[in-house]
Amino acid sequence: MKAATFTITGKKLEPTILPKEWKEDKNLNLVSQAVHVYEDRLHKGHRKAQTRAEVNRTKKKLFKQKGTGNARHGSRSAPIFVGGGVAHGPRPIKKVLYLSSKMKRKSLLASLALKSKNSESIVVKDLEKIKKTKEAQKFLDAAKITNRRTFVLKEGSVRKVLKNLENTNIKLFSDLNTYDVLFGGTLIFDSAVFEKPKKETKKVTKTTKKEK
Length: 212
Known about the structure:
By secondary structure, the chain is α/β, with parallel strands linked by helices. It is built from 5 helices and 6 strands, in the order ββααβαβαβαβ. The chain has 2 domains: about 1-45 and about 100-195, Ribosomal protein L4/L1 (Ribosomal Protein L4, Chain: A); about 45-95, no CATH class. It is about 25% helix and about 15% strand. It is elongated.
């Protein structure tokens, strides 16, 4: 699986070979489950309606029990009256949904595979060299990206430059989730995301024993 690759000036380069892990099997059920969990956790679950015991109204009996021809009401806070309490209203109870780390990873890889197959992901080389918002807008115009987009960065050093662009999200690759991928529009990856970390070589210094 490959993705189109551009320079920061919009010049097209040879396509980038995407990681083998992104060839995850098409699992729409898992992807939809991950989106459901994400959307559910956006709601805090603090909605609450006042009952007749909590509403701020007088508790005095409206009228005497018998002889008026009216129903036998005890106070104005009953749900039948305007401004009274709510019967069986919502209470602040939140059931939090979870996904295991394995399911999260699988759903993320499946969503990335879907985006790549639909040609909705590109790679930009040396994205960190963009120093002004105008330069970033010129790149988008040259690459003909007019819809919603999400910049996926390895580090947040370019965030200040990109945050003023319209219809643009900025995410670190380590923080990416299924929801961001599916609803983020065109994914614009920094080429540094796909670079393998360099192995650190420890310098071995020879020590010689001092002669007495």
